[in-house]
Amino acid sequence: MSTAPPTSTDEAPQSVAEPAPSAGRWSPLRPLILRLHFYAGVLVAPFLLVAALTGFLYAGSFQAEKLLYADELTVSAVGDAKLPISEQVAAARAAHPEGSVAAVRPSPADDATTRVLLSGVEGVDPTHTLAVFVDPYTAKVRGSLEQYGSTGALPLRTWIDEFHRDLHLGQTGRLYSELAASWLGVIALGGLALWFSRRRARRRLRGTSGRRRTLGLHGTVGAWVAAGFLFLSATGLTWSTYAGANIDELRTSLGQSTPSVTATAGGDHSGHGASASAGGEHGVGLDKVLSAARAEGLGDPVEIVPPADASSAYVVKQIQRSWPEKQDAVAVDPTTGEVTDVLRFADYPLLAKLTRWGIDLHTGSLFGLVNQIALMLLALSLILLIVWGYRMWWQRGRGSAFGRPIPRGAWQQVPPQTLLPCVAAIAVVGYFVPLLGIPLAAFIVVDVVLGEIAHRRGRTSGAGVK
To answer: Is 393 within a domain?
Structure first.
């Protein structure tokens, strides 16, 4: 649940229309969570709204990409047999001699083209490649497009992806998405706790109106999608700037980092034609390398990465991100064509597998169209919750320019044996997720200072009356 909270109660006495939740250990914590949920929602909602809108567009970009770039992605007619990879690469290089071959993605399906990826091409972002699309049956070049990332995003999806990730502002812009991911889970948990705390007091929406109806919609929809928000928050942080670095460090310390195939070739390669070349052909060549990888069970789709230098091997890796994932990889000696190392996805550490699955589910790759529709529904739910949250804020102020705030001092009602463990847990989480911890600490400091100022003014005013 996100954004302006289901502020179902004020700290003033409650009305009959909104009965108080049952007392117990929860009672002292509820006003504190209510206040945190309210202010976090109000302040972070604009960032979440941008993330939701751009995330909605990104989830839809997979299908849009297939339609927009159909000429490049598919062949005009399926032939009897595909040409050797070396011939397809030679055709791509004849049409585009610029740069050097960074990788080759052989046609993964009967009607799909082969991609020859070129790096160092003038006019192409250094972090991207130029993808040359080749008909595997005729070696005819069907076009070229700039490509980004391991999922092979083409210009449309790349633009939306970068807008979602950093608003096209580079590294500085990534702070917005990390802030949104950091707070989304906290706001969702807070809203979920508030919703369950009133499970005995809730009434049917029929016959209700105004703020209570908005509250019911906000709370019910938020409760249904809270698990999805928690997932998006956790997986989004795995590749964020600061929290992501901390997560990687923790995984490494636990021996759970993502492994990679050893790409060092064996033997003496001097004078055997194994040095890097702009055309992508090294030593035994692409066809024998692909054949060696197939013998190790690497089925389509795969990517062939040529040796980086005279001491390196070819790397052939599976690149299927849909279920079941295919992420096996082999290294092939360029002078002998023999496989020198094999890495199976089944042998990945557990956290490495979970990270891979989580990222692919977050980006809409794991379960294809179903995955993408689910992400679009989550994004739409988040947008609605933000709208309802701000509407409740307005309704709570009974038409004033801004809704009335939740009164201060809620933390003073929490017993020390409950407050101290909560503070310790928040401190630990804030350390590992700094864009959660730093804003939260700033909010607490400002809130305490403003509260003290208001308290002193109240005492001064009272003394003046006397």
So the answer is: yes
Could you tell me if 430 and 186 are in contact, meaning their C-beta atoms sit under 8 angstroms apart? no
Structure tokens given for 456: 């002193």
Q: Is the dihedral of CA 308, 309, 311, 314 positive or negative?
A: positive
Where does a domain end: 98, 130, 153? Answer: 153
* pLDDT band at residue 372 under the 50/70/90 scheme: very high
Interior angle at CA 221, CA 426 and CA 213, nearest 5: 110
Q: Which residues of 405-440 are buried (b: 16+ CB within 10 A; e: fewer)?
A: ebebebbeebeeeebeeeeeebeebbebbbbbbebb
Structural domain including 127 reads 74-153
In sequence order, what are the residues at sequence separation of 6 or more whose Cβ sits closer than 8 angstroms to the Cβ of residue 122?
98, 99
pTM of the full structure: 0.86
pLDDT bucket at 396, cuts 50 / 70 / 90: confident
Task: Specify the DSSP element, H or E, that contains 134.
Answer: strand 129-134
> Cα–Cα distance between 415 and 340 in angstroms, integer?
63
Do the strands 100-105 and 114-119 form a parallel or antiparallel pair, or are they unpaired? antiparallel
